[in-house]
Specification:
Length: about 325
């Protein structure tokens, strides 16, 4: 899985801002994912910005006000009344069909501007469809900013429920009785996926399936399969303690490409058991197979380095002559004889 985080996006845009031509006068972001890199790019280059609809209507953002007469002739009532070089920005391009629709819409408007197109991440083979791109990223790929809003990814994902679709139950709510049943029925939504999830994998017990399905239906959450733990009660589930192993088994059985988990410890266990990537919503990080072993190895090497430095300093101190061995007349400063 080729994963890119918000941090990756910011880094690529910062590099882009340095290389971008000085001829660009305006940055236009394509809703919704393109608005984020467009805003970052406009801020880096201190350029005015617009969304697509605003651009076509002659509106430009400037601190929440209409952009008027700030560049060039002060008599210009609108920044777009005279020809400009405009860069239309999206976060990525896959097939180019969406961008083709945008091009057609802009061309139909018969605007006097020179319009360029750019993306941060391009699918291999689509580079020629844009004037600028920052990085070529092949599928399968996942972007942190739309993990729950990409049908192509979600349909091949396993997704945890508590901590992602709704908050985790509190200790008082998690009584495996009336309080928990009330939580399952009335938990507020947390993240709202807009696509169809392949598999919901939860440590909730099978005896709460009907209530869980009803909650998902009321919230309009679409999914292929709901996989739940089959223990008689929460005490038996806690005694087994097989949360990560249960989810890892489901990950492997389903053949899913990705797993979204809320608990950091379980995310690490799932990744290690399956050899597949897991995105931890709780820490907002990608947990990759082998990462735990690497961290342990790096930690062991760090401690070994610290111990070596301490031993060297101790040996150096022990080799220094003591004050009692100082020759007569060479008393340490501050002493009197």
């Amino acid at each position: 899985m080729n994963y890119r985080s918000f941090s990756d996006l910011q880094a690529r845009v910062a590099e882009w801002a340095i290389a971008l031509s000085d001829e660009v006068d305006l940055v236009v972001g394509l809703p919704r994912s393109g608005l984020l890199p467009a805003t970052l790019l406009a801020l880096h280059r201190h350029l005015p910005m617009a969304d697509l609809d605003g651009f076509l209507a002659g509106r430009v953002y400037d601190g929440g006000r209409r952009f008027r007469g700030r560049f060039g002739d002060s008599a210009v009532t609108s920044y777009l009344d005279e020809p400009r070089t405009v860069l239309v920005v999206d976060d990525s391009i896959r097939s180019g069909s969406s961008l083709a629709e945008v091009r057609e819409r802009i061309e139909r408007a018969h605007l006097p501007h020179t319009v360029l197109y750019g993306v941060v991440f391009a699918e291999p083979g689509t580079e020629h469809l844009v004037d600028y791109f920052c990085e070529v990223v092949a599928t399968p790929r996942a972007f942190e900013w739309n993990l729950l809003h990409t049908d192509a990814l979600l349909s091949k994902c396993c997704v945890d429920i508590d901590g992602i679709l709704c908050p985790d139950p509190t200790r008082a709510q998690n009584d495996d009785g009336h309080a928990y049943l009330d939580f399952v029925r009335s938990a507020p939504p947390l993240y709202r996926p807009t696509g169809r999830i392949g598999w919901l994998v939860t440590c909730r017990l099978e005896k709460y399936r009907a209530e869980t399905e009803a909650w998902l239906d009321r919230r309009g959450i679409r999914y292929g399969e709901l996989i739940m733990m089959d223990y008689p009660d929460a005490r038996a589930r806690r005694a087994a303690g097989a949360y990560g192993a249960f989810k890892a088994k489901a990950y492997l059985r389903t053949g899913a490409r990705f797993f979204l988990e809320s608990n950091p410890r379980q995310a690490r266990e799932i990744a290690e058991r399956t050899g597949r990537p897991v995105y931890c919503v709780g820490t907002r990080e990608l947990v990759e197979p082998g990462s735990i072993a690497r961290r342990r190895r790096d930690g062991a090497e760090w401690w070994s380095s610290v111990r070596s430095r301490v031993r060297r300093k101790l040996r150096a101190l022990l080799r220094r002559p003591s004050e009692q061995d100082s020759p007569p007349g060479d008393a340490p400063a501050g002493w009197t004889s």
